[in-house]
Each structure stands twice: as C-alpha cells, then as structure tokens.
C-alpha cells in the first residue's frame, strides 16, 4: 500500500501530464502508444475489468513498460475529469521518472531505472 502523500504527488504529476499532452487516457490509446514504443509508464486501475486488463497487461509486459497498479479507477478518473478510467499511459520520460520516484511500479522499477536521455548532437549528425 502506498502513502497518501506519494499518491497525491503521483496524481498531481499525471494531471500535469494530461494538461501538457504528455499522457494518454484509455486502453485503446495506451495500446497504440505502447505498440509505437512511446509509452514510458502505465497506471492501471486495480479494479479495472478483466477484459480491459487482458487487452493491456500482456502488451505492456512484452514491451517492457513499467506498470503501477496501486490506484483505483475512480482515482484515475478524477484526474481526467471522467467517472472512471482503466489505464493512463505516460509518454514523457521526465514525467514518468517523477511518477516512478513517487510510486515504484509493481515490478520494482523506480525512476532511477529508466534509461537516460542522450542529448542530441549539436549538428544533428550521428556520432
């Protein structure tokens, strides 16, 4: 079980990501982002339906996406302005790191475990 402070911090970061278009809402959008390699972390509702979980969990595991499943569908829905949401996927690496620092994933992945972003070359050429 996670503390209320950590939960509040993570949900605040998710809300920031949604406003900045750095997160996707719903099973279908999270699946598409995972297939294209854009998904950095997924927040899956602990009380999501079995059908929704079957659609997303295997794909997330196959693509190596960390999963946080300590939040309920109503908590995730409260961030998005909906009644309930099964999955929120974060596509920004920095935002994902902040969320994983607040709440480690079910696999034990933390923000330190995310691969660092390599800065681009000044001229845009490969090294």
**Total DSSP E strands:** 4
Strand content: 5-15%
First and last CA, distance? 45 Å
Mean pLDDT: 85
CATH topology, anyone?
Answer: 60s Ribosomal Protein L30, Chain: A
* CATH class identity: Alpha Beta
Cα shape: globular
Structural class: alpha+beta
The side-by-side strand order for the widest beta sheet comes to: 1-4-2-3
Task: List the helices and strands in order.
Answer: HEHEHEHEH
CATH homologous superfamily heading: Ribosomal protein L30/S12
Tally of contiguous helical segments: 5
Characterization of this structure:
Helix content is 44%, strand content 13%. The chain is of the alpha+beta class and 127 residues long. Helix 3 links the parallel strand 2 and strand 3. Helix 1 packs parallel to helix 4, helix 1 runs antiparallel to helix 5 and helix 2 packs parallel to helix 3. The chain starts with a helix and ends in a 25-residue tail after the last helix.
């Amino acid at each position: 079980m996670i503390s209320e402070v950590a939960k509040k911090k993570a949900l605040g970061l998710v809300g920031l990501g949604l406003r900045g278009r750095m997160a996707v809402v719903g099973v279908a959008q999270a699946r598409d982002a995972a297939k294209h390699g854009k998904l950095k972390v997924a927040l899956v509702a602990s009380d999501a339906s079995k059908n929704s979980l079957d659609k997303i969990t295997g794909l997330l595991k196959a693509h190596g996406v960390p999963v946080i499943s300590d939040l309920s569908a109503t908590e995730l829905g409260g961030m998005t302005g909906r009644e309930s949401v099964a999955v929120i996927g974060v596509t920004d690496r920095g935002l994902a790191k902040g969320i994983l620092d607040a709440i480690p994933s079910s696999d034990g992945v933390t923000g330190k475990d995310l691969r660092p972003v390599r800065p681009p070359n000044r001229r845009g050429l490969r090294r």
